[in-house]
Amino acid sequence: MKKGLILEGGAMRGLFTCGIIDVMMENDVWPDGLVGVSAGAAFGCNMKSRQPGRAIRYNKRFANDARYSGIRSLLTTGDYFNAAFAYHVVPTQYDLFDDEAFNRNPMEFVCVCTDVETGKPVYKRLDQCSDTAYDWIRASASMPLCSRVVNIEGYKLLDGGVSDSIPLEWAENNGYERNVVILTQPMGYRKHHSRLMPLMRIGLHRFPQMVEAMDKRYLMYNRQLDYVAEAERQGRCLVIRPDGKLPIGHVCHNPQQMERVYQTGRQAGLQYINEIKKYLCE
Predict the structure, then answer these.
(1) HEC string for the chain
(2) Taking the complete model, does pTM exceed 0.85, yes or no?
(3) Average of pLDDT values for 97-124?
(4) Mean pLDDT of the chain
(5) What is the mean pLDDT of residues 230-244?
(6) What's the pLDDT score for residue 281?
């Protein structure tokens, strides 16, 4: 029986997820595969490289570094999170990503992106580290309006959360019979139609299928919440979510705020670790 870990996105809310997966690593709990969306992919890759603490460490270190993220980067490069510095310089020069450990780890790692020409999800399994692999992860986390379209291996890609925010159904259809799902919104949350759609229509006017996917994203997301709830009721998944709204926005430049959200995740991880062990290891 294949056992999976499903990580939704949520930009900096993903630091909650980091706290949980760090506790899992510290307790030697490993799924057979991890499917990450957006921040879930960008932070979740540190589980395949077996590096607890790395994601919170580099986010705090570069929180106020203009080379890493910010309006200057958006205006000069087209990406709020600087593509070259954040995804290629930091992991190779400042906070080294353990490529060899990533390559050796048999855990399957899949990141979800959205094809802007079709508005449909693209699921990319990454077994070996490379600049191309880093760019697939970047594509998964490239938020519309805050990022350039990522051209890679014949695709034009942006944020995977637009087309498949919580890929539990995909995981089940691909052989994962028991899954832990980490959400970054509390119980009872429902997504609403985006107030930014007028800007989306302008910024993505060359990609009408992507605009349509953005327009209907809230419907897709709420259907997925219902799917997860039913799977949870049937015992097909274990769901971990914050108790309340996480006190952080999509972007954040406050290391103390980042640490608070990360520690909230750690507390949830410690609370659930025995249940996670039982669910994934027995």
Answers:
(1) CEEEEEECCCHHHHHHHHHHHHHHHHCCCCCCEEEEECHHHHHHHHHHCCCCCHHHHHHHHCCCCCCCECHHHHHHHCCCECHHHHHHHHHHHHCCCCHHHHHHCCCEEEEEEEECCCCEEEEEECCCCCHHHHHHHHHHCCCCCCCCCEEECCEEEEEHHHCCCCCHHHHHHCCEEEEEEECCCCCCCCCCCCCCHHHHHHHCCCCHHHHHHHHCHHHHHHHHHHHHHHHHHCCCEEEECCCCCCCCCCCCCCHHHHHHHHHHHHHHHHHHHHHHHHHHHC
(2) yes
(3) 98
(4) 97
(5) 97
(6) 82
